[in-house]
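Hi support team,

I submitted a single chain yesterday and got back a structure, but I'm not sure I'm reading the token output correctly. Could someone confirm the output below corresponds to the sequence I sent? I've pasted both exactly as they appear in my results page.

Thanks,
R.
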Amino acid sequence: MLQNNPIIPEFMMYQPGLEDSELEEIANRVSAHARSTEDRFLIFTDILIEIVGGGEWRNRSSAFLAMCGKACFLRGKYGYNQILARESQSLNCKGYAAAAYCRQSLDPRWLNNLRNITNQTWQAKDYIAFAELSGQLASVLMDLGYTDHAREIASESIDKVTLATAQDAEIRTMVQAALLRPRIILAFISGYSDSREEALIRLDSAHDTASLLDHQLALNDIRYYRARALEDMFEHDRALSLVTTSLREYERMGYLKGVA
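Hi R., thanks for writing in. Yes, this is the structure output for that exact sequence:
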């Protein structure tokens, strides 16, 4: 189902930090679903959510904790996000908990909290966490209507992380995966300042990267934002077809889109 690698592309950026025992455990749990017809994203995130729910997340590597926090956030298990943030030292977990609060409340305090944690990841030179949390921060800002600020956050994160990791060929693919969300958000927002055509061109570019990485969540995000761009261009039929497909795909993946 997942070829030879048990870690799906949506979480590949954390694989180098996993301990061998953690990788083996995930591989064993994934192999139990080898004959399943369920979506691979659903299966993989279910495994991580079960680990958190069973309290088996303690004494794990920081990369493993980051994967757990991300899985809980993407699936809308926000209560687990709060547990991970409260009981671990992981900046990733604290960041995803802050992002979860942003999805549940429009209180700007949560937004400031997410911004502060994102800045801390940069200071800690955790470029993967910075890229991922910047993408979530840009998403929240865009949803709240702060498009200029969202553009600034997305653009800056892409530039800073690309520059900081330019000499490190080993993590280049991981960085590309982590920067997909900022790229998608920036592409969509560019339609407001440049043109809808420019937005579609940028989405096409992000699509090429997502296809290369087989990053199913990013591919569906691109489909969703392409639909929104087409709707703004009054191409209602194409937009409706794309958004219907993307929402159906989100549902199949168990992904919680937008505010809970």
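A quick pointer for reading it: Residues 147-164 form the longest helix (18 residues). Let us know if anything else looks off.

Best,
Support desk
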